[in-house]
From TrEMBL:
Keyword DNA-binding: no
Domain of life: Bacteria
Protein name listed in UniProt: Permease
Organism, scientific name: Neolewinella lacunae
Top-level taxonomy: Bacteria, Pseudomonadati, Bacteroidota, Saprospiria, Saprospirales
This protein's record includes keyword Ligase: no
TM region positions: 6-22, 34-54, 60-78, 99-119, 131-150, 171-191, 211-229, 241-259, 265-284, 305-325, 331-353
UniProt keyword terms in alphabetical order: Membrane, Transmembrane, Transmembrane helix, Transport
Amino acid sequence: MHPALEKTLVFLLLIAAGYFLQRKIDGKRELAGIKVLILSVILPATIFVALLQVSIERELLWLPILALALNAALYFASQWALPHLGFGRGTAENRTMRLLLPSLAPGLSCFPFLLEYLGEESLALAALADVGNKVFVLIVLYLLAMHWYAARHRSAGETTAGSKRAKLKDLALALLREPVNLVILLALGMLTWGLDINALPAFLENTATRLAALMTPIVLLFIGMAIRFERREMALIVRALAFRAGVALLLSAGLLYLGPGLPPALALLVVVFPQSAVSFWPFAHLSAVEGLGKDGSAGVFAPDLALNVLACSLPFSTVVILGILSCGNFFAQPGSAAVLGLALLALPMFYAWRRARVVPRPSPGWKAEAIREEWQEVKV
């Protein structure tokens, strides 16, 4: 049996074991506790060890910039496509999807597989790229959510400049309190001074190494325990996720075409990293915005839809990432990545084509009204 296929079967068995453990999980609180353990202890230890075991070159500082550009490209592509995929323009569902789809959560959906298939160096590079993604997810999307809330409730005077400054201050403090951010800053500081993993005392090195070894099995079990098959809105969500994955693959193919000769491991990283699941942070942003309303619901977003997207995104991304990595270096070529991207885009594009044929032609005043709504939405 091919080693990559054998490793994939092991991963699938661990996910299946987590799925059958769902009966032992009493409510969402215990599942949230496992997630906290992963994001606050195991993942920071894994990234810390990985960063200190590779040499960081100046050229790699472009990775966060490329990740930030990827987020922006996914946002604008989603803004154009969502009205054609069943999410009406100017609706709470549309705003919810525009907040979720550009975000990436590589910690739970990508890093374990990069570690197992491509090694610690690829994981370290992905962690550096994730810095740009975090800037977009934690700052840009938060400001966008607050802008939509302010635009909707400006006449009621429910937001003030002072409250915005206070929330931005709280956001900055939250960024500094995140264990992953602290670990990345600490590791980069040590690398700047020429220190590596061997510079640590033996007991600290052994502790971090043992925690990092827990990464893959714990995350795979968590994926299995977190899977929830919700029939409601499933087709709508899968279309949006397929569009997101297809666009990301086309962007990856374009980058591989513009930069020929990349090592296979780095080329696969370019393809796999954008396939990470949707991040939890946009859901946290929109939940906070919804809580700003006088009755506890601002009506700007659709939190139930966001939860369903989060539930579907993790297994969807896991299947795509495992499928790519299980094929060896096949998808390290731009042509292969582009073909897979077009295949994933076929479903949402076919739906959009059929919808355009079935939906009645809008009245002459519809286009002007839609333009006015869009301008009111983006106007500061």
